[in-house]
Amino acid sequence: MHICHVNLASGFSGGERQTLTLIQQQAQMGYQLTAVVNPKSPLVDELRAIPQCQIVLCPHYTRQHGRSITATCDLIHVHEGRAIYWALFQHLLHRVPYIVTRRIDNPLKKKWLSQLAYRKASALVGLSSEIVHQLEKRHPDAKLVKIPSSPVTYPVSQDKVEQINAHFRGKFLVIHAANMYAHKGFDVTIEAARLLADTSPDIQFCLLGDGKERASLEGQAQGLTNVQFMGKQTNMGDWFAAADLLVHPSYTEGLGSVILEAMTAGLPVIGARAGGIPDIIGHGVTGHLIEPGNANQLAQYIADIAQQDALRAHLIKGSHQQAAACDISQTAITYQDLYQQVITH
């Protein structure tokens, strides 16, 4: 089977890591692979380490539409918003079928080109029930499939883990890792830290990330000694190994890949009952859920997990089971079944 993956993002965030993880797994499964990627993206260098993958550098969705790019491909797999237009043009020009994986739970755009691109797809994949719901609202007649993303694993440097542990010695370390956008709920985490500052001085919050909301959040956290802004991190494996708990109280979220990554690393997790997060956090089983924006709930659950070893062990066991169910080996087989259905249709 020859699959052409398309991701035209210029950065290297969760969606790009998911694209890479799937391509790596499919290479192990014996696929022929083509990847159409933005030349500015770090994804390019990662893909160069995969001999089975031919790389096509494409700075814009209107470029690189030669017949030869997909001449031997069975199907195009779209992984982000701009890539859907590239797949649409390739389909209209050369009749190559394509599927779309949508990772965000926002309502779909009403623009005619976007609607056409989704309508022409052979199948639409949502990472969560909420994303599938949003797809169904706009395209009720489409073939809709829910396939959760898979956790990415990161290398761990024991020296760096020990440095983090030494810096926060004696503290119960809570991390919140995301780009600092308003919908990521950092304000909720900071407010929970404020509520715990006097009653639980041994709980330390580290906010891992950067973005346009950082200055405002730093203002909100002014005077709190139990909150530290650590900036954007490239060594998440070290932080997962050093931390005691991950919180992710987003107001909206496609699925929350960082939650799955933390689960894989053996951390208990707390998320918000928003977007696709409830698909992977079963309250009291694989983690805890708060109502969006409820800092009081978040503070209480953090304190419970910090103080109750049995509860923490129970949640870690459940989170490991959830992460295993989303392993890339399972995800790749699910996608393979979908590819075969589209190809033979």
From TrEMBL:
<feature type="domain" description="Glycosyl transferase family 1">
    <location>
        <begin position="159"/>
        <end position="319"/>
    </location>
</feature>
<keyword id="KW-0808">Transferase</keyword>
<protein>
    <submittedName>
        <fullName>Glycosyl transferase</fullName>
    </submittedName>
</protein>
<dbReference type="GO" id="GO:0016740">
    <property type="term" value="F:transferase activity"/>
</dbReference>
<dbReference type="InterPro" id="IPR050194">
    <property type="entry name" value="Glycosyltransferase_grp1"/>
</dbReference>
<dbReference type="InterPro" id="IPR001296">
    <property type="entry name" value="Glyco_trans_1"/>
</dbReference>
<dbReference type="Pfam" id="PF00534">
    <property type="entry name" value="Glycos_transf_1"/>
</dbReference>
